[in-house]
Write a structure and sequence with these properties.
single chain; alpha/beta; Aminopeptidase; Alpha-Beta Plaits; 2 domains; eight-stranded mixed sheet; four-stranded antiparallel sheet; elongated; binds zinc ion
């Protein structure tokens, strides 16, 4: 780490303690009550006047600028997942069936580290710095909520950045691509409705199970034959529910699945293609059909200029060797909504983990990455205001 950022090592040690507190008390998306209170208390201790919201758990703290220059925003997510923790760490979850398996405890601790670095060093830049603690990332509802609440206004945010711990990247390294880094997520419920009947007399029924099988098979051609081989897409059916016994043709089949794309144009094409394939497959077999898109978020697409600026900031803070090149992930991230509003970039922070990937019951954010995370944000701030 460069000399200007060396004080961050001490801050990082304390932030690991803070993270363990978050880790012991994980909360699911939208009900991050004690998490919010802990974030608010930590910010107040540092002299901030954090803003909270009715009916949602977000927290926003603004560090004042020395002038009315452009405002930069940094975002951390707050929620945990419905998993039973098996990490075995001393600070394991005390809430049964809930754990920080995506490392959002680490993201909050990193952002609080940045808050402390700004406050302790009285770092006043030409514009205000907004620290956004966002609930409900895993459900994709938190970012749209905060945008509707106006967190990108007063002062107007000119650029926004966020990081996510990435287990397979080594400690001390980061990855920040120029464009798409995470996929658009389009989850769907499909209902196929036929006419039930005796399993021995299919001609008197309209069998939605056969229609479901046809659809699942035909839908494999969307990725293999409609998407360019050079344009990433994935379609997975994760839930198939129909009748209960051997000899009854059921009335309905419910299919649940997820469609992931990196390219917004391909996203539109494949959504429309799946709808058309469903309608034609079902009607050809005399089955009624419907599709509902139940959860969706756009692809997380970095602004190339902001990604380049961030890389320069990271190099200045952490040295030339800190950057890695990693292909995008087909996972989703609701930071995408912020990037639709203002230019910015999302990047991965190496966690150097051999086992227990994201959303795994053995996962625990690696504290050894804390200093790098804080230095990364600090480096981006420095670069943003002192080009
Ligand atoms: Zn996650
Ligand atoms: Zn996550």
């Amino acid at each position: 780490m460069k000399p200007a950022f060396q004080t961050l090592e001490t801050i990082a040690a304390d932030c690991s303690e803070t993270r363990h507190g978050f880790h012991r008390h994980p909360e699911l998306s939208g009900v991050e009550f004690t998490t919010r209170d802990a974030v608010v208390a930590a910010l107040k201790m540092l002299g901030y006047a954090p803003q909270t919201f009715d009916g949602h758990m977000g927290v926003v703290a603004t560090w004042p600028g020395a002038a009315d220059g452009p405002c930069i925003a940094l975002r951390a997510d707050m929620d945990a997942l419905p998993l039973r923790e098996e990490s075995g760490v001393a600070w394991s979850s005390e809430h049964a069936g809930v754990m920080h398996a995506c490392g959002h405890d680490g993201h909050m601790a990193v952002l609080l580290g940045v808050a402390r670095w700004l406050a302790e060093n009285k770092k006043h830049y030409p514009g205000a710095i907004k620290l956004i603690f966002q609930p409900a990332e895993e459900t994709g509802l938190g970012a749209p909520f905060l945008i509707r609440e106006g967190v990108l206004k007063n002062p107007e945010v000119a650029a926004i950045f966020a990081l996510h711990g990435w287990p397979e990247l080594p400690i001390g390294t980061l990855a920040i691509p120029d464009t798409a880094i995470m996929a658009a997520v389009d989850n769907f419920d499909i209902i196929l409705k036929g006419v039930g009947g005796h399993g021995a007399m299919p001609h008197l029924a309209r069998d939605p199970v056969v229609a479901a099988a046809s659809l699942i098979t035909a839908a494999q051609t969307l990725v293999s034959r409609r998407a360019s081989p050079l344009d990433a897409a994935v379609l997975t059916f994760g839930h198939v529910a129909a009748g209960k016994t051997y000899n009854v043709i059921p009335e309905t089949v419910l299919l649940r699945g997820t469609l992931r794309t990196l390219n917004p144009a391909l996203r539109d094409t494949l959504r429309a293609d799946l709808e058309a394939l469903l309608a034609h497959t079902a009607s050809g077999l005399g089955i009624a059909s419907s599709i509902e898109w139940v959860e969706a978020c756009p692809a997380t697409i970095n602004d190339p200029a902001m990604a380049a600026l961030a890389r320069e900031g990271l190099r200045a803070a952490l040295g030339d060797g800190c950057l890695r090149s990693v292909p995008p992930s087909m996972g989703g991230e609701d930071f995408s909504y912020f990037l639709q509003q203002v230019p910015g970039a999302y990047f991965w922070l190496g966690l150097g983990m051999e086992r227990g990937g994201l959303h795994n019951p053995r996962f625990d954010f690696n504290d050894a990455a804390m200093a790098t995370g804080i230095a990364a944000f600090a480096g981006i701030i420095e670069r943003f205001y002192r080009p």
